[in-house]
Amino acid sequence: MSVKSIKASYLYTPKGIIEDGQIIIENDQIIDILDSSNALNNKIQDIEIKNNFILFPGFINTHCHLELTAVGPIPEHHLYSKDKSEFFVNWIQELVKSKNLLTEDEKIKGIKKGIDDLLLSGVTTLGDHVSFNTPLDPIINSPLKGKIFAETIGAIDEVSQDIYHHLCQIKENWQHDRFDYQVIPHSVHAVYPDTLKKCFNEQSSPLSCHLAESQAEFDYFDSKSGPMANLVRNMTGNLPYTSETGLDFINKTDLSLEKLLLIHGNYLSTDDFKLLADKSVSIVHCPGSWEYFKHQNFNLEGALNHHINIAIGTDSIASNTKLNFLHELKLIREKYPNLNAKTILDMATINGAKALEIDHQVGSIEIGKKADLVGFRIKNNEENPLDLPFTNEKVDFLMIDGKTYLS
Ligand SMILES: [Zn+2]
C-alpha cells in the first residue's frame, strides 16, 4: 500500500473551490480531501507541494479518432467547394484515400503522437473511435483510460454485417482493466439498417454514434438528395433509409434511444432536444471540428436549456487544426462568452465521465475516484485561476492513477 498526498493553493471540487487543499491518495485512488480548516495530514511522508497551483480533475476527451492522427489536418484547399455538403463529402473521400495509404507503422506512430499531445493538454480519459483494423496496443498501453468504440460501418448489408461480427469477436476476448471495448455504429447513414438495429439491440450503452453532424447528412434524410445521398446511391444503388433524420429512424424503429451517445448534434431541432432530454442522451460537442467544417450553428444554449448533458471532444486531427483539448475549451469560451467557466469546465470533466458512463470512477476530485489530476501554475495573482485552462496551451502538472507524469 502506498499513501501520498498533494497540497495545492486551489482544488476544483464539486463542493466548490477548496483553498489550500490537500488530497490524500492511496495507490491510484483519492481517499481523503482536506482543507485549511481541517488539520492537514502531515503524518504522510510523501507530500508533493504545489504552491500557486490550481488542480482540476483530469480532462475527458469524449470523442476522438487517434488512428487518424497520422493523416494530419486535411488542408481545406484540397476539398475546396463553396457548398458545405460537397466540402464534407470531399473530406470523407480524401480521408478514406489518405487512411488507406497509411502503413501499420505510420498508424502506430500517429496514435502515439496523438496520445502525447492529448496528455500535454490534460486529457486523462478518452472515448476513442477505432476501425476494425486499428492497432490497439499503443492506446491500451498508454497511461490513459476510457472506452474504445469499435466502429461498425458499411452502407452495404454484407459489409456492415462482416465488420460487425468481426468486432463482436474481438469484444468477446477483450480483457483490460482501464479500457472497455464496445461495438458501436459509426453513424446511422453509413450503417445498413439491419446492422444498426443489431448494434442497438445487442450492444451495451453508451453507443457512441455520429449523428446530425453535417448538412450533407441532413439532406440525405430530409430530401434524399445532395452529395451524401449520391455517394451512398453510387455504392448501393438506392438509399436504405426513408426516415426524416437519423434520430427519427432510431426513435420510430423503437430502438433503445437511451443507449445513444450522440456525437456532434449540429443539426438538431427543439423537438429533438426534447426527445434527447427525455431519454437522458448526452451530446458531445467538438468545437474544432465544427469550425473546420463550418457547420450550422451548434445550439449549445438550446441543449443546456433542455438540461442535456454536454461533453467535449477533439474529434480527429483530420478535421481540426491540432489535437489539443485546451484549444477546444478556448474555442467554446470565444464562441459562447456568456457561459461561465464552471459550465465549460464541467463539460470537460464530469459531463464527459457521465457521457462515457464512468462517472463513478473519474470526472471529479472526490473521495473514491481515481487520482487523475491536472494542474496549472498561477503566474499572476490578479488572474482568476478558473481562467487558466482557457489561456494555456498545456498543463503544468499531470497525474494519472496516482502517478505523476508532468510536474
Ligand atoms: Zn468523429
Describe this structure in words.
With 407 residues, the protein is α/β, with parallel strands linked by helices. It is 35% helix and 24% strand. It has a seven-stranded mixed beta sheet with strand order 3-2-1-4-13-14-15, with no helix packed on it. It has a four-stranded parallel beta sheet with strand order 5-6-7-8. It is globular and about 70 Å long. The two termini are 23 Å apart. The protein binds zinc ion. Zinc ion binds at residues 63, 65, 129, 210, 263, 315.
Sequence-ordered SSE layout with sheet pairings:
Layout (H helix, E strand, L loop, with lengths): L2 E11 L2 E11 L2 E6 L12 E11 L1 E6 L19 H18 L2 H17 L2 E8 L6 H4 L4 E8 L4 H16 L6 E7 L7 H10 L4 E5 L3 H8 L4 H10 L9 H7 L7 E5 L5 H9 L3 E4 L1 H7 L6 H6 L4 E3 L12 H11 L5 H8 L1 H6 L17 E5 L10 H4 L5 E4 L2 E4 L1
Parallel strand pairs: 1-4, 5-6, 6-7, 7-8, 9-10, 10-11, 11-12
Antiparallel strand pairs: 1-2, 2-3, 4-13, 13-14, 14-15
Helix pairs in contact: 1-6, 4-5, 6-7
Bound molecules: zinc ion.
